[in-house]
Amino acid sequence: MRTRLVPAGFGVLSALVGVAAGHLVAALTEPSASPVLAVGSQVIDLTPTPVKEWAIAQFGTHDKAILVGSVLAGVLVLAAVAGVLAARRFLYGAALLGVLVAVPALLATDVLPSLVAGAAGIGALWSLTRTRQAGGGGRRGVLLAGGLAVGALAMGGAGRWITSYRSRVVEIDLPAAADPAPPFPTGLDDRVPGISSFRTPTSDFYRVDTRLALPIVDADGWTLTIDGDVEQEVSFTLDELLAMPLVERDITLTCVSNEVGGQYIGAARWLGVRLTDLLEQAGIGSTSADQILSTDVDGMTISTPLAVATDGRDAMIAVGMNGRSLTPEHGFPARMVVPGLYGFVSACKWITRMTLTTYAEQDAYWTERDWATDAPIKISSRIDTPKPLATVDAGRTVIGGVAWAQHQMGVAKVEVRIDGGAWQQARLGPSAGDDYWRQWYLPWTAEPGQHTLAVRTVDGEDDVQTAVRATPFPEGSSGVQEIVVNVA
Ligand SMILES: Nc1nc2c(c(=O)[nH]1)N[C@H]1C(S)=C(S)[C@@H](COP(=O)(O)O)O[C@H]1N2
Ligand SMILES: [Mo]
């Protein structure tokens, strides 16, 4: 047993040296080409939709950390086997380690990190195996192993630091809006403790995308191209976009994966160029296209129904969020925002291209995976306070939260039901427009015992939030949130 434990450890250590070296090289070139991330990205793309939904539901925003951890664990187990093999026939072990590294090389956009990972890993395995076979199992072996472990830590740490440095927030000077939003009203933030803030701070804004590493986009070299079925292909640099008249709007973004009562929703003030102003320059007067196929810096695609995006709503290519440039997480330097459509069919981050085409001709990432193509955000509402299963002091308290009916003439009413009784009308916070969510609250004299609270929205067209449950796939969840609280 012990005789195998040491070579297995050599295998694991060699793989760590390789992975760390690959990570460092990727940090300097293309961070997403780091070997473990390249495999992880492929797993994300190949995972069937129901499994993805399950993972998002189980692990929430930790889904990616868990995925990367699992890939790394798998690599290390196989690397242990490679170490044991290498102790008998070095070539076999080296070959297995080579295969482990070859897989990411085939999947990544850039093979250099994988090649370096392979060379470093096999080199480490060779030196460890040889030192032991030369009878240097004692002090020299320990020194070598220690040195390699420190080296792996240093390379991995340096890679991390370089990546975060390169994807740091870059502030661009944003011109004032030609068409500003009205002054932002004071919400209920201070009056109803525990309620979502009326405007979501960028640092708290939910993040949903398929990426494991943030892209590194150089604002100076970035362009946005409009092509496909247009009169003339046009491209804009960031400076050219900023020189156009900018609109400023308060818009609530929602993810189709948001479960009833979920957290994948955020409300911000966006600054950008009207989508129709850009499309006009390309000329779409006589186009037969029915979709805008947006492409991001790495080729991720998002489709948007052309008719919806150009129906007069405030669709834009945004360059600013909450008064600053976009952060790397939220699409720097530019992204699409379309009020009323779920993010997966509208909100392409790190956008570089809009191709006018048809759904019959070209599929986007989610369309290929059978999600809806035209997906308006369903009206819904959420209880922020009290929290599910919370224990509340008996007496006067408040039930409060947010409700949304983007682009459906907004939220007209919010109703709360306590213990299956009649729906009672909640009080509404101020309005920041129909494309923005609304805060609400209901004073409540809580009697001791267990209580069930439910909430629903009525929109400006008198449509009532349905109680019929639907899963996020394929066009968004529905149902009424119901929570249980204890009053003591
Ligand atoms: N390039 C790119 N853009 C993307 C995505 C993505 O995976 N890649 N995800 C979309 C989805 S599903 C949503 S809900 C929104 C989320 O935007 P946020 O992360 O800024 O909240 O971005 C959209 N834009
Ligand atoms: Mo989403």
From TrEMBL:
<feature type="transmembrane region" description="Helical">
    <location>
        <begin position="90"/>
        <end position="106"/>
    </location>
</feature>
<dbReference type="InterPro" id="IPR014756">
    <property type="entry name" value="Ig_E-set"/>
</dbReference>
<feature type="transmembrane region" description="Helical">
    <location>
        <begin position="65"/>
        <end position="85"/>
    </location>
</feature>
<keyword id="KW-0812">Transmembrane</keyword>
<dbReference type="InterPro" id="IPR000572">
    <property type="entry name" value="OxRdtase_Mopterin-bd_dom"/>
</dbReference>
<keyword id="KW-1133">Transmembrane helix</keyword>
<keyword id="KW-0472">Membrane</keyword>
<feature type="transmembrane region" description="Helical">
    <location>
        <begin position="112"/>
        <end position="129"/>
    </location>
</feature>
<dbReference type="InterPro" id="IPR036374">
    <property type="entry name" value="OxRdtase_Mopterin-bd_sf"/>
</dbReference>
<feature type="domain" description="Oxidoreductase molybdopterin-binding">
    <location>
        <begin position="213"/>
        <end position="365"/>
    </location>
</feature>
<dbReference type="Pfam" id="PF00174">
    <property type="entry name" value="Oxidored_molyb"/>
</dbReference>
<feature type="transmembrane region" description="Helical">
    <location>
        <begin position="141"/>
        <end position="162"/>
    </location>
</feature>
<protein>
    <submittedName>
        <fullName>Molybdopterin-dependent oxidoreductase</fullName>
    </submittedName>
</protein>
